[in-house]
Structures are given as C-alpha cells and as structure tokens.
TrEMBL record:
Protein name stated in the entry: Penicillin-binding protein 2
Lineage: superkingdom: Bacteria
Any one of the GO CC terms: plasma membrane
Compartmental location: Cell membrane; Membrane
The keyword ATP-binding belongs to this UniProt entry's keyword annotation: no
One Gene Ontology MF term: peptidoglycan L,D-transpeptidase activity
NCBIfam families assigned to the protein according to its UniProt record, in alphabetical order: pbp2_mrdA
Family, as annotated: Belongs to the transpeptidase family.
Lipid bilayer topology: Single-pass membrane protein
InterPro entries: Beta-lactam/transpept, Beta-lactam/transpept-like, PBP_dimer, PBP_dimer_sf, PCN-bd_Tpept, Penicillin-binding_protein_2
A single GO BP: regulation of cell shape
Domain Penicillin-binding protein dimerisation: 42-207
Domain Penicillin-binding protein transpeptidase: start-end pairs: 246-599
Organism of derivation: [Actinomadura] parvosata subsp. kistnae
Length: 610
C-alpha cells in the first residue's frame, strides 16, 4: 500500500513537472522574459549658480509639487485622459496643457515633451496651494498615478536678467546656457531606485534604493549689479528707439571674463518650472542675442581695416582725402549723408568715421590681389566662435572670394529664376526693378569677388557678420595690448562644503595681427571718438576725468529694415569692454552710444537703477 501510494505520488510529481517544463515551458519562458528590472533615477539637489560676489543667480527652494506617473496613466482604460481631466479641474488648468507635459519624447514627438525616464514621476504643477495638495492626496481613488510631495525646484531671483546665459533645466538635466555647459558639475550624482516591472510596464516591487549626492555650486564672473545696469540700459534704448532686439556685453578686458550678458527679447526662465505647453514653447525667445545674434558691424569694423592698412604698408599718420564719394568700377560708394570731410589722417578717419578713405584702401588692395583685409579680420577672431563656455555660439562670417563663389553656386538656380520672373510680390516697383536687374547681372556673372565687395567689406558691410561677444572680445584685445581670450562665464566650481573643485581660467587663443604701435594708435584714435568724434553728442558732459572711455560708433544698413546701431567701447579703470547693439536702432551715435554711456555711468554709480 505504501509502495503504491509512493509510486502514485512520484508519478503525479513527474507528470506535473513534464506538464510545466515541456507542455507549457515556452509560455513560462516568455512570461519570465517579460519581467524586467528598471532603474528610476532619483535626481539630487542641483547646485546653485552664484555671481562673482556670491549673490545667487539660480538657487533652489522646496515647494509642493504635483507629479504624474506616466506608466500608471498608460494602464488606465482611456490612457489616463479622465485622470488628467480631473487633475486639470483641481489645478485650474486645461487637459491639453497637462497632456503635453506628460507625453514622452520620441522620434516623432515634437517639443515640448518629457525627456526623462518614463518611470520617473513627471512634475506638472509646482507651488500648488495646501488645500489643493490635500485634495489630491486624499482622493487617490480619483487620481491614480498622481502624487503631491515637497521637491526642490529652481528659482531665479533676478527674473529675466541673464536668462539666456543661465539657461534652464528640464527633466533634471541642463538644456541650455550655464545649466547645460556645467551640467555635470551642477547635477551632482543621481541616486536610483531599481524596480521590477511586468510585461505591461506596471511596477510590481522595489528592489533597492541608492540616495543621490547633491551637486556642486558654480561661481561665475557675472556681476549681478552690472548685469542689472546693462539690462536696464538695453531695455530703455530699445523702448525709446523702437528697436526689435539687441544685446549688451561687458567683459574684463585683461582677463576675458564675462561681467554681464544682456539680450532682448528675453523671458523668465521660471516658465520651465511647471513645464511648458507647445504654444508657450513656440513663443519663447530662446535665441541668445549676445552669443547667437549676428549683425553687420558697420564702422566698428574699421579697427580691423585700419590694422590691415598698417600691415599692408599704408602709413597711419599719412594724409588721405575724404571726398563725398569714391568710384569703384561703375558704382559710386558714398560717405554717410554724402559728407565731404576733406583731407585727414587715419586717426581722423576713425574719429570722424570717413568711409571713402576705407573704400579707396580696399579698392587698391583688391587691385593688388591682396587678402589683407580678410586675414586681419580673422586674426581679430572674426569668422569663428570665440569658444565661450555657453552652448550654441554663432560663428559670424568673414566673406571672401571662395565663400562668395560657393554661395553663388548654391543659389544660382533661384537667382536665374528671379532674373526671368522678377519680384512681382513686391509692392515697391522701383525696388523690384532694381533687384531684378541685380539678379540678371548675378545670373550671368555672379560668384566673382569684385572691388565693390572689397569696398563694402572694409566698412563692415557686404556679408560681414559678427556677434556682440565677438566684437567685444576684439575690442578687449585692442584695450589689453593684443591678447585674444576665449571668454568664460564660469569662475570656479565649489563643493557643498566650500572646497574649491577647480578654478576656470579663460584660455588665450591668439594675438591680434597688429604691432604695439598700431594698437597704441587705435587706442588713441578711439579715445577721441566719444570726446570730439561721432559719439561726442551722446557723451556730452560725460566725466572723462573719472573714466576715460574710448569707443567706436557703427551704423550698418539692413535690407528692408532700419539701420543696426552699434557702439563698442573700453576703459582702463575699471578695465571693462562694453559693446551694445540695437537691431533697427538707427545710427550708432543715436541709439547704441547713449545706451553704452548709461552702462558706464551705472558702473560708476552715477545712475540710479530702477
């Protein structure tokens, strides 16, 4: 009996094992394979960003945050629509806004979207009121997958000031500006939670947790006081002159450190705190005008042309005639307003901004086949990024024969089409006729670098493009004796305990292609521009005895728009370089120069900041 019972039990066990391993073995293999371990990052407290005196530019605070579990929503019968609708009613926000914040990024998913882990709680609302937070917490049956918890969030004490420089954070990662450039330092070390998920993505259990390590602090060379002064001066200049955009740059001439970067239009980076909708994202002015904006520099470019003239053997102290116009080929290139300024040295050409002297210089160099103008401009750092510690920097443009030929080849089909069809969409008949004739000429023989191209190049027109930061770096090099730096905003990285991890030093990237004598000549000539030259009206009554500001005005033409207004300047004490550009700001002496004066007066404490 016992043998029979034992035999029956053994047979049953073997039969069950055969059933599980042979008959249903494949199904269990698939089920086991569908169980995965997922790691959910635990973001650490992000490091602060401070100005040079220790004032916080970006810091953290703890506020109630509403988060959504995307995977929990995905397991709802309607994909979580009802939950988000109820949540929107509680928060006073539309369903669509919340849905855009919780959708996961992918190849076909447009911005904005969640770039973090799908298993990480996605913040959809911060700083909610206590009653709303309690309502959501106590009604979990109505809000499955939704939680409220205190979390650290980024705070920007100065609002829009330096918004593009500071950047923003999305999904616990820096996405622009210093937040992106120094993300590895600021982010700290993320902790993690390992969770088991089934084949539908549902979390079944927590396996282990590792706490995060807070990020380091970034101390910058930004001076919050000077930054505020630059922001105010730029805003007032654009408001009074009707300009559409602009920038102001302040550098330490002797070190290459950035003291202030202001740009308009700007935005308040706290908009990223709750995530942005598609409409908000499209409306954000994300371009940093100081680093990514490109304009023709106008007469501020003449420092490079004067240096090129000296290098090519033209005497800076020689006398040149400044007639109202100079003919290159079959075209007359004129001074501003057709002014006849008579004979003068190159010193006078810079102080009074004579164009025709530079037209003649460019024409003669072109006839000799010399590329001295282009070589000198590149030696001043133009036509390539400065290497500043900010992402997305523009390179500007130094056009020459090769680039003109390449551009013509790329656009020849469109040029020739316009030569046949003209510009019927333009309301200005005379302008349309002129452009059509120009297209015919370029269709037949475009792509050739001519004397007229060289003439325009010499005065900072004709395809020359610079960023405000590039121009500021070049003028800083004139001020400091010829050293070109790669500017840096970061000053040092400091651990939470106060230990310095590393000091950030602006690297030297080259020397200006100009002798010490040429640089002294440029400094002396630019020193007269605000006193007796083109900027004298803007600087009337300025205390030059306290701060000897030198500079150069620039007025660049822009097709179909008002002129671009420039003023580039520097002073020995404090040893700063200040550059202002106003898109559609009019003449340099009337728009940018007064704004630069306001910045210098603010630095001296002569203006009250509002």
């Amino acid at each position: 009996m016992l043998r029979l019972v034992a035999t029956a039990m053994l047979a049953t066990l073997l039969g069950r094992l055969w059933f599980l391993q042979v008959v249903n073995g494949a199904a269990y293999v698939r089920a086991a394979a569908d169980v995965r371990v997922r790691s959910v990052p635990l973001p650490p407290t992000r490091g602060q960003i401070l100005d040079v005196t220790g004032r916080p530019l970006v810091t953290n605070t703890t506020r109630p945050v509403v988060t959504v579990d995307a995977m929990a929503l995905a397991h709802q019968p309607d994909g979580g629509r009802a939950v988000l609708t109820r949540l929107g009613e509680a928060l006073g926000r539309p369903y669509r806004q919340l849905a855009e914040k919780v959708r996961l990024c992918g190849p076909s998913v447009p911005q904005p979207c969640w770039q973090g882990s799908p298993y990480e709680p996605i913040p959809v609302a911060r700083d909610v009121s206590v009653p709303v937070a309690l309502q959501i917490s106590e009604r979990q049956q109505d809000f499955p997958g939704v939680r409220t918890e205190p979390r650290p969030i980024r705070v920007y004490p100065y609002g829009r000031a330096a918004a593009h420089t500071l950047g923003y954070v999305q999904g616990a990662k820096g996405r622009d500006g210093l937040e992106a450039a120094y993300d590895r330092d600021l982010a700290g070390r993320a902790g993690r939670t390992d969770v088991a998920v089934d084949n539908t993505g549902r979390v079944t259990r927590t396996i282990r947790q590792e706490p995060p390590v807070p990020g380091d602090t970034l101390v910058t060379s930004i001076d919050a006081r000077v930054q505020a002064i630059a922001e105010q001066a730029l805003g007032e200049a654009l408001a009074s002159g009707g300009g559409s955009s602009g920038a102001a740059v302040v550098l330490e001439s002797a070190t290459g450190r950035v003291v202030a970067l202001a740009g308009r239009p700007a935005y308040d980076p706290s908009v990223w705190t709750d995530g942005v909708t598609a409409r908000e994202y499209r409306a954000l002015p994300l371009l940093s005008q100081a680093v990514q904006g490109e304009w023709a520099p106008g007469s501020t470019w003449k420092v490079t042309s004067a240096a090129a003239a000296a290098a090519a053997g033209y005497g800076l102290g020689a006398t040149y005639d400044c007639p109202p116009g100079y003919t290159v080929g079959d075209r007359v290139f004129r001074n501003f307003a057709g002014a006849d300024l008579g004979p003068m040295t190159m010193h006078g050409a810079l102080v009074r901004s004579c164009d025709t002297i530079f037209y003649r210089l460019a024409d003669r160099l072109w006839r000799r086949g010399s590329d001295a103008l282009q070589r000198t401009a590149r030696g001043f750092g133009f036509g390539r990024p400065t290497g500043v510690d900010l992402p997305g920097e523009a390179a500007g443009a130094v056009p020459d024969a090769a680039s003109k030929r390449a551009q013509w080849r790329a656009t020849r089909a469109e040029i020739c089409r316009r030569s046949r069809e003209g510009y019927p969409e333009m309301g200005d008949r005379a302008r349309a006729a002129y452009l059509t004739e120009l297209a015919r000429e370029n269709c037949r023989g475009g792509g050739v670098w001519r004397g007229g191209d060289a003439a325009n190049f010499a005065i900072g027109q004709g395809g020359v493009l610079v960023t405000p930061l590039q121009l500021a770096r070049a003028y800083a090099a004139v001020a400091n004796g010829g050293t070109l730096y790669s500017p840096r905003v970061g000053l040092k990285v400091v651990r939470p305990g106060g230990t310095t991890v590393r000091t950030i030093t602006p690297p030297v990237t080259g020397r200006l292609p100009a002798s010490d004598a040429t640089l002294r000549f440029l400094r002396q000539a630019l020193g007269q521009v605000p006193r007796t030259g083109t900027a004298a009206g803007a600087f009337k009554g300025f205390p030059f005895g306290r701060i000897a500001v030198a500079g150069k005005t620039g007025t660049a033409e822009s097709f179909g728009r008002r002129d671009t207004s420039w003023f580039a300047s520097f002073a020995p004490d404090p040893g700063y370089t200040v550059v202002v550009v106003l898109s559609e700001g009019g003449r340099g002496a009337e728009g940018a120069a007064p704004a630069a004066r306001a910045i210098w007066e603010g630095i001296l404490g002569l203006r009250e900041r509002r």
